[in-house]
Write a structure and sequence with these properties.
- By secondary structure, the chain is an all-alpha fold.
- Helix content is 79%, strand content 0%.
- The longest helix is centred in the first third of the chain and has 18 residues.
- The protein is globular, with a radius of gyration of 18 Å.
Length: 247
Amino acid sequence: LQTKNWAGDRDGAVRSGEEALVIARELGLREQEAYLSLDLPRVYRMGGHLPPSIWDTVRRGIELFRELGNRPMVADGLSTVAVAQFGQGEYDAALRSGSEALAISEEIGNLWGQSFSRFATPFILFERGEWGAALREWETGIRLAREAGFRAGELGPGVDMAFAVHTAGDLGRALRLIEAPLALSETMGDIAFWPRAARARVATGMGRLDEAREWVDRAASGRVWLVVPNAIGLFHTARAELELALG
C-alpha cells in the first residue's frame, strides 16, 4: 500500500490496502487492521475519491488503537478525522476531535501529535472571525512540527497561515510567510503545487500578473491531488483570481 501510494500508483495502493484489510480481519490481526484503517483513507484522499463508508473504517481503527493502548495512534486517527470533518463543514465536530487529539498528545508529550491535532482547528477559528487565536494556533503547530521533524506539519499549516494573512489584507507578510513552505515543498515532490498556488495568489493580489501566471503554471505542471480540501481549493482559487485579474 505505502510503496505503491508514494510511487504514484493510487489504484494499486487501494487494491493492496483493501486486500490486506480483508486478510487482517479474517486472521484477527487487530494491530494490522488498525494501521490499515487509518492508512487507506489517506490513499483515497490523495487520489481524490473518498467512499462514504471509509469513515466507519477509520473509526474502527481508532477504537482498535484504544483497545491496544496505542495512544499516539488514537490521537493520529482523531486528527485525521478532524481534517475530514473540517472539509465537510462539520466545524464543531472537527474542533472536538482535534481537542481530544491534542489532549492525548500533551499527556504523553508527543510533539508530532500536538502539531497534527492543529491541522483543522486554526482554519476553523479563522473562518469564524477569531483571527488572533487562529494565528497563534498556526504558529504553535508549526513550531512543534519543526521540533518534531514533522515536515508536513510545517508545510500545510504554513501555507494556510499565509493564505489567512493574505485574506486579512497583509500581502507583504503573506509573501514572507509563504517562502518557508515553498522552499520546504521543493524537497517533497507533488505537494509543491500547494505553496506555489499560494505564491501565485499573492502575486495576483500585488498586481504582478506575469509573475502570477508563472507560479500558476508551475503549480499546474505537477500532479494536483486532494491532500486536504484547502489545498485543492487554494489551487483553483489562485487560478480563478488570476483569470479575473486578466479580464
